[in-house]
């Protein structure tokens, strides 16, 4: 069975974006970049990876899931951001923009969609954001891979949106600190 991995950059205080969806304070350069790319190859938009000379094949995922706000970060320049992956965007209010051929837009229940995807053959499924979608899929997430950044946001989009209080045990798989201050923290369900 395929696994769902929530792989995302997060501030030390638990935000994946600022109050106006800012994410420019996350470190993209530094000694962490190569190590994390090696482990999670294929998790950059296709066009950006190609421009940087990074291979997108043979990564751990063949499918990426996004909420509309995460997807919209690249618009209008990147309406088909991860051409090398199957892309599914969850939205109840938006239509596919011009140039989004190959991107699936759905208003279906995310849990139902993920359970169907897990039953299919293939590589891993990557949840790349956002916090509200992560909250809806919290019970379906098999792995959590956090690029913990040494920055405090104070407010913004929470890692798991407005997930109600319900402690869930996670088991650490690997904790990799880098000189840049970024820590890759990987967990699985306890």
Automatic annotation (TrEMBL):
Domain Bacterial bifunctional deaminase-reductase C-terminal: 4-184
Xref: SUPFAM superfamilies: Dihydrofolate reductase-like
Gene3D superfamilies: Dihydrofolate Reductase, subunit A
Pfam families the record matches: RibD_C
InterPro entries assigned: DHFR-like_dom_sf, RibDG_C, Riboflavin_Biosynth_HTPR
Name of the protein in its database record: Dihydrofolate reductase
Organism field: Isoptericola halotolerans
Taxonomic lineage: Bacteria, Bacillati, Actinomycetota, Actinomycetes, Micrococcales
């Amino acid at each position: 069975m395929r696994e769902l991995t929530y792989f995302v950059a997060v501030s030390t205080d638990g935000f994946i974006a600022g109050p106006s969806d800012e994410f420019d304070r996350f470190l993209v350069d530094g000694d962490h970049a190569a190590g994390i790319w090696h482990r999670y190859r294929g998790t950059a938009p296709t066009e950006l990876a190609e421009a940087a000379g990074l291979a997108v094949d043979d990564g751990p995922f063949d499918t990426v899931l996004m909420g509309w706000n995460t997807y919209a970060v690249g618009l209008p320049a990147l309406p088909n951001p991860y051409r090398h992956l199957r892309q599914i965007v969850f939205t109840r209010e938006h239509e596919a923009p011009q140039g989004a051929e190959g991107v699936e837009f759905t208003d279906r229940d995310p849990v139902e969609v993920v359970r169907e995807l897990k039953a299919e053959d293939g590589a891993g499924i990557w949840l790349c954001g956002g916090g509200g979608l992560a909250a809806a899929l919290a019970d379906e997430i098999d792995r959590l891979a956090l690029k913990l950044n040494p920055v405090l946001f104070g407010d913004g989009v929470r890692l798991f949106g407005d997930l109600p209080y319900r402690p869930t045990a996670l088991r650490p798989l690997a904790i990799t600190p880098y000189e840049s201050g970024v820590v890759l923290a990987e967990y699985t369900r306890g």
